[in-house]
Design goal:
- InterPro entries: Cyt_P450, Cyt_P450_B, Cyt_P450_CS, Cyt_P450_sf.
- One of its GO terms (molecular function) is monooxygenase activity.
- Keywords: Heme, Iron, Metal-binding, Monooxygenase, Oxidoreductase.
- This is Cytochrome P450.
- Belongs to the cytochrome P450 family.
- The chain is of the alpha+beta class.
- It has a single domain, classed as Orthogonal Bundle (Cytochrome p450).
- It is built from 16 helices and eleven strands.
- The chain has a six-stranded mixed sheet, with helices on both faces.
- The longest helix has 32 residues.
- It is globular and about 65 Å long.
């Protein structure tokens, strides 16, 4: 096998990501696939191969290591270019990665995250207050009213984004960038709008500094630790990673427990906690389908394939989570499941997700508040349409009845 012979063209509609992941696992642990605009990459399809891709020293970040990119074969309007080529810690290794990550470390350690809990609770209860007036039996979109605005409000609180219009526009434009069916023109326009918003935010912090993460990143720029482009891209990746993934985690967890009332009963009787729900959701229906991209610095044997120097590698998270060699009865949602070893839901090694502790805390607080306020909540549609993304994994809407009829 080689990249000239992709075994599967990935479905841009993401209509059934778990069925696609099963098909990929049947093809092999690491196989060549094709994305938009004919871009080709290897994808890992089980946990062991995903773990190897995260930790192999010759699989590195940096778009300059991508042979097809260096040779001009990748169009600049490729929809995912902004994410794989941005000047952020996500796309750099070694000293550059450390330099870009250091200004953020202090905000995401366990101690400050515990101090955020009160604010997260306030945001959650405020949103639930807004939903509480729904007539009994009426259907409301819980994603629009709760699971989407809560993480956006939290990350904007950390960054010091106080303007509601700016928050809403960030959410809308980033959703377009991540939508796999968006045209290059739509993605370009959305990316331009996001850059305009980020420039406006940085200008605001220059004139009115505050005790927030955006101001601290601006100070790192002034101290010569970050370039202007690195400053802007770092804020962008925080908004993308700090919002969209937690939105999906929350929506997927709510769907899972409402579709499995016997599992919800285990939480309600105190046998298990919301942390167990979060952990099993991360495995069984993760918020991120695939993690883009690593590049082979040299030829690398991976999952029975030979990844050639300069080839890109995608880590398949849906395939890893439902790997039957590691997780018996892997399709079943089971919060009593004992998961051995270090999970790979948030990556491994130097690139382990900085915001993982915050995402867990947000999800546990939000789920606790939701099910305490609306103990009789029920799904109005057990299988709503999926979001259209090669990267993210969730639903476009989450129709529920907060108070059942009668």
């Amino acid at each position: 096998m080689d990249l000239d012979h992709p075994l599967l063209v990935l479905d841009p509609t993401a209509a059934d990501p778990h069925a696609e992941a099963r098909r990929l696992r049947q093809l092999g642990a690491c196989v060549p696939v094709e994305l938009q605009q004919g871009v080709r990459a290897w994808i890992t399809n089980d946990e062991a191969t995903g773990r190897a891709a995260f930790t192999h020293p010759a699989l590195v970040k940096g778009v300059e290591n991508w042979r097809a990119y260096r040779e001009g074969e990748i169009r600049q309007d490729w929809p995912l270019m902004a994410l794989v080529a941005g000047e952020t810690m996500v796309n750099r290794d070694g000293a550059d990665h450390t330099r870009l990550r250091n200004p953020l470390n202090a905000a995401f350690t366990r101690r400050p995250i515990r101090t955020y809990a009160g604010r997260i609770e306030e945001i959650a209860h405020g949103l639930l207050d807004d939903l509480a007036g729904q007539p009994a039996g009426s259907v409301t979109d819980l994603k629009a009213g709760f699971t989407f605005p809560l993480p956006m409000a939290v990350i904007c609180h950390l960054l010091g984004i106080d303007d509601p219009d700016m928050r809403d526009r960030f959410g809308d434009e980033i959703a377009t960038i991540l939508r796999s069916t968006a045209t290059p023109q739509e993605v370009g326009a959305a990316f331009g709008a996001v850059m305009e918003l980020l420039d406006r935010l940085v200008s605001q912090k220059e004139s009115r500094p505050a005790d927030d993460l955006a101001t601290r990143l601006l100070q790192s720029h002034r101290d010569g630790e970050l370039t202007r482009a690195e400053l802007v891209d770092s804020i962008l990746i925080l908004v993308v990673a700090g919002h969209e993934t937690t939105v999906n985690l929350l929506a997927n967890a709510v769907r899972a427990v409402l579709n499995h009332p016997e599992q919800l009963a285990l939480v309600r009787d105190g046998s298990y906690g919301w942390s167990d729900v979060v952990q099993e959701t991360l495995r069984q229906d993760p918020p991120v389908q695939r993690i883009f991209l690593r590049f082979a610095r040299e030829d690398v044997p991976l999952g029975g394939a030979l990844v050639r120097a300069g080839d890109p590698v995608i880590v398949g998270m849906t395939g890893a989570g439902r790997d039957t060699d590691v997780h018996p009865d892997a399709d079943r949602f089971d919060i009593t499941r004992k998961q051995s070893g270090t999970p790979i839901h948030f990556g491994l090694g130097a690139h382990y997700c900085l915001g993982a502790p915050l995402a867990r805390v947000e999800a546990e607080i939000a789920l606790t508040a939701l099910f305490e306020r609306f103990p009789d909540i029920e799904l109005a549609d057990p299988a709503p349409p999926r979001i259209l993304s090669h990267i993210m994994n969730s639903v476009r809407t989450l129709p529920v009845r907060l108070v059942p009829a009668g």
